[in-house]
């Protein structure tokens, strides 16, 4: 019997994702940027969206570079301790690389970046785990914005729907979410289907380092800069989904 062309074995050894070479490239990129750019910022992301970070990368690529990678890899690039850092006090930036944060290397002044960050935001759809900012209620009646083929999906999300003469209809009042309560995955999907964005994508500049002024804290935190290097806590691996936001070096 002839062998099927589909019967092929694929070696999983060739599917290594984000291995040592990838990590080393991020480290090298960060060290290159430390030399190239006069100003560095650690930014914190609220309501993370990769597509919006990519848009910012394109907008700022002329004179800046965004890097958004695993925190421990970025820490190595900057230097985790005084002994490792290539510039004085860069290890203080490393200590603030926790949670959903990234690095901004730029030729723009500190004043320009802080003013921009204060005023920049983008409306986005909320995800599960987000605390609802308002109560959303759907009254009983037709939902003409949805096609009849959507009815089973809406019902699976918990909406009390049925088809009446081919029109999706809610047969009783339904509260999608309540202000101050955490959204479930189903509630977040319903809000997106309804076209009701509730979240804001923002960047907060936690701290900065400039070749002229050195380190400066912009958001108060509990980090002890006088803590011995050996006592620096190791961050748990909770940032596997983070991506490096590459930028042009030109």
TrEMBL record:
Coiled-coil region: none
Matches recorded under SUPFAM superfamilies: Ribosomal protein L10-like (SSF160369)
Main location: cytoplasm
Large ribosomal subunit protein uL10-like insertion domain sequence ranges: 126-195
Biased composition (Acidic residues): 222-250
One cellular-component annotation, GO: nucleolus
Pfam families, per the entry: Ribosomal_L10, RL10P_insert
Keyword line: Cytoplasm, Nucleus, Ribosome biogenesis
Subcellular location: Cytoplasm; Nucleus, Nucleolus
GO terms (BP aspect): nuclear-transcribed mRNA catabolic process; ribosomal large subunit assembly; rRNA processing
GO molecular function list: RNA binding
Region (Disordered): 218-250
InterPro entries reported in the protein's UniProt record: Mrt4, Ribosomal_uL10, Ribosomal_uL10-like_insert, Ribosomal_uL10-like_insert_sf, Ribosomal_uL10-like_sf, Ribosome_Assembly_uL10
Similarity-based family: Belongs to the universal ribosomal protein uL10 family.
Role: Component of the ribosome assembly machinery. Nuclear paralog of the ribosomal protein P0, it binds pre-60S subunits at an early stage of assembly in the nucleolus, and is replaced by P0 in cytoplasmic pre-60S subunits and mature 80S ribosomes.
Quaternary structure and interacting proteins, as annotated: Associates with the pre-60S ribosomal particle.
Name listed for the protein in its UniProt record: Ribosome assembly factor mrt4
């Amino acid at each position: 019997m002839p062998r099927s062309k589909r019967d092929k074995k694929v070696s999983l050894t060739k599917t290594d994702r984000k291995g040592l070479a990838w990590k080393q490239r991020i480290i090298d990129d960060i060290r290159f940027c430390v030399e190239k750019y006069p100003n560095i910022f650690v930014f914190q992301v609220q309501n993370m969206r990769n597509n919006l970070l990519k848009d910012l990368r394109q907008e700022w690529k002329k004179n800046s570079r965004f890097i958004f990678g695993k925190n421990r890899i970025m820490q190595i690039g900057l230097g985790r301790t005084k002994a490792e850092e290539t510039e004085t006090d860069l290890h203080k930036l490393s200590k603030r690389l926790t949670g959903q944060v990234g690095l901004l290397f730029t030729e723009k002044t500190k004043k320009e970046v802080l003013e921009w960050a204060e005023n920049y935001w983008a409306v986005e759809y909320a995800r599960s785990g987000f605390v609802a900012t308002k109560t959303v209620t759907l009254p009983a009646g037709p939902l003409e914005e949805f096609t009849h083929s959507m009815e089973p999906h809406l019902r699976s999300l918990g909406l009390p729907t049925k088809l009446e003469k081919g029109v999706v209809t809610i047969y009783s009042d339904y509260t999608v979410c309540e202000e101050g309560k955490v959204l479930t995955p189903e509630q977040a999907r319903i809000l997106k289907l309804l076209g009701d964005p509730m979240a804001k994508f923002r960047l907060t500049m936690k701290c900065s380092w400039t070749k002229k002024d050195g380190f400066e804290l912009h958001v108060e935190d509990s980090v002890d800069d006088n803590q011995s290097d050996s006592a620096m806590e190791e961050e748990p691996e909770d940032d596997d989904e983070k991506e490096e936001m590459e930028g042009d070096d030109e």
